[in-house]
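Batch job 17 of 40 flagged for manual review because the log was empty.
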Amino acid sequence: MPPEPVARSADPWARLRATTTARIGLGRTGDAMALSDVLAFQLAHARARDAVHTPLDVAALVARLPGAVVVRSAAPDRPTYLRRPDLGRQLSPDGMLPRGAHDAVFVIADGLSASAVMAHAVEVMEATVARLPGFRIAPPVVATQARVAIGDDIGEALGARLAVVLIGERPGLTVAESLGVYLTYAPKRGTRDSARNCLSNIHGQGGVSVTAAADTLAWLMRAALQRQLTGVGLKEAAGLALDHNTGTNQPPIPLTS
């Protein structure tokens, strides 16, 4: 009698792959990875490279942001920006910004993913501003070849109490359009990163939603002005931010005079 066929066991990685976008338990064809997995990896890598090198569509952003001011960093071009992070942190000497009495300035910076900025930055800013009645908001600033710390120069020049930098995050091989937000109280050149609050992974592929980001950012901005600090000394109080299970807003923190 011929031997009975041996039943094939279920894929032990299937349940894990269903819970993450990480590349785990990939199959093989002989000694090599399956062609479909190789092609998917190459496509993800190409998208990440495109996110880094595609220039920000400044004209399209300005069209959506009436009154926006456009500035650039001290890095004259993209290759220099990628090689010299220090220049991306400094406002170009020819940047002219009108000083005033502002509670906050929103800086939309290309960072390492202009596509993330185009996809999410304006929506996050508008949703946050809508949650901040009574705030004196400076005209939005669009910054090119920029890194997070350029918000220090911009906030100091404008006289803003808070600088909010919305910037394209370093793309990965799963998501190339992830937006980050950095909040700094009393911005000035030389501010340490430990004096900032960061919200990251804002994107539409399982990341933080625009609504959730705006709720948290608005709470942090109110708390920053009340306590006169940001960074490691300011932690989000989950019970005071939006209750994402019920969708109800908790009482806001009042502004200081």
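Reviewer: the log was empty due to a logging misconfiguration, but the result itself is present. Residues 57-227 form a domain with the Rossmann fold fold (CATH 3.40.50.11240). Unflagging and moving on to job 18.
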